[in-house]
Amino acid sequence: QVPLKPGRSLMDWIRLTKSGKDLTGLKGRLSEVTEDELAKHNKKEDCWICIRGFVYNVTPYMEYHPGGEDELMKAAGTDGTDLFDQVHRWVNYESMLKECLVGRMAVKPVTAPKEISSTLSEEKKQLNGVLPEKVLGASAKDLTPSYDWFQTDSLITIVVYTKQKDMNAELVIVDCEDKRLRAEIIVDDHSYLVEVDLDHAVQEDVAVSIAEKVRKVEIILKKKDKIHWRMLGQPLESHNTFIKRTDRGLFYRKCKLVSKKEVTHDTKLFCLMLPKSTHLRVPMGQHVYLKQIIAGTEVVKPYTPVLPFLPLDFKEPSCHDDAHIYLMIKIYSCGLFTQALDHLQIGDYISVSSPEGNLKKSQIQTSEELFLLAAGTGFTPMVKLLNFTLTEVSCLRTVKLIFFNKTEDDIFWRNQLEQLALKDERFEVQFILSQPTKDWMGKQGKISSALLSEFVKRSRRDSKVLICICGPTPFTEQGVQYLKDLGYSQEEIHAFTA
Ligand code: FAD
Ligand code: NAD
Q1: Which molecular-function annotation in GO is an example for this chain (predicted)?
Q2: How far away, in angstroms, is 472 Cα from ligand 1 center?
Q3: Going by fewer Cβ within 10 Å, which terminus of the chain is more open, N or C?
């Protein structure tokens, strides 16, 4: 991120797009753009970019781009889809750039190579004349799941046969709304989808059962009426496809805000309830995207679910279950998204995406010493990590949280963290403040090589160490560099990013 000039915030951009100003310079005319034509528009004052087959004039957006003009210019006059996907695939550019739309790329006829999976629709193969990344390699094809279904008087059972070792409930995401069933199964970095418009209506609750040994997933639906179904339903666009997870668009479901509690002066714990017809568990280290319509534009931001409290603290009522998602969110006084979030009332709905993230459980299960470096809300991924390591990982000898905040008042769950350290001798916590008051007796400063060499130390030369780091981008980037300078390898460091 780069500092933006005053008057160039996302809200200012939204206002400009609503002002009726001609942002493409084409008076609303849409055209077919050839590659040659696109390539001509490669200057800051005349910059077109293609994303997924659609061409946008991004010149008016230059000064509003949070990543800076130079980043945007990297894709000037070209297909920027890959670059866009690498940096922020989740940003809803269709909505944000709709007033900048110049037109579609002219479609070139293509011949599909042999290895294209037969499960991809013709339309997908031809999309904007460029072959999608959805072409499967041989290894992915070997893992392709398949499905079948059967019925009793009252139930419909869909069985997905996967070839996935360690199949578990976190790898299955099911949504069923108004006869539309969408069941996604995650297999390594691929996603298999059963997506149909069901033959008949079903009841709200959906059950998922996993037979781990035979790598089989069962999705059980209750018929609304006890009638015989002739078929499961009409296949929808992405039905029976097996593609890279990152190529699947984000899927959202509406969740109800059921409570909102203060954590600190500016941070709240939001509890969202998933629909009964959704089966979704957010794995440790992963985040979801929230989507809200702000001033008529869809805005999306990532958040990392936490638990309602830390492990070993049994004082709170136990409401920790799969039906709720807890989010610890800092409300910024000038924040576009968090201000809108803070205005949600109990009972209001908000769109929540399926989870994403790349922390592997095995990275933690094989560690003997875990160091967690968290700054501000960068604490959020550490909550599930702490719960998992302290309750399920037997080889871990120490877990050390080094928590950076501005002031004492900004520290989340200080009391709980201190209690946890007293209760579990493997766990240690250190608070470091960057703007302490005179009374602060603890450590102060920002992340530095000196601080890290003091707090992140192997207790044995051959110890298996994992260091997880999360916070503002400069904090994470500097931290990773210092750790590398101190001799930690890439494999020993996990940085949380979007
Ligand atoms: P914005 O409108 O983006 O602004 C935030 C603050 O920064 C404001 O004070 C604004 O004035 C200032 N600002 C914004 N852009 C600039 C700029 N370019 N130059 C100078 N100042 C600027 N947050 C949480 O609270 N909890 C979480 O669990 C969480 N999880 C996350 C997970 C991931 C993977 C990532 C990437 C981020 C996560 N975040 C989390 C941060 C979250 O996504 C939002 O960025 C945050 O809520 C701020 O959004 P906003 O629209 O309210 O603020
Ligand atoms: P904050 O402004 O309260 O700062 C907390 C601490 O971070 C400071 O005390 C300081 O020690 C450190 N810090 C802040 N700016 C720094 C800088 N420029 N260089 C070095 N250190 C710095 O933090 P906040 O408002 O709670 O913000 C937390 C950040 O964490 C957000 O940017 C959010 O996007 C990010 N976050 C990322 C993820 C993720 O990627 N998975 C998850 C949660 C939060």
Answers
A1: metal ion binding
A2: 9
A3: N
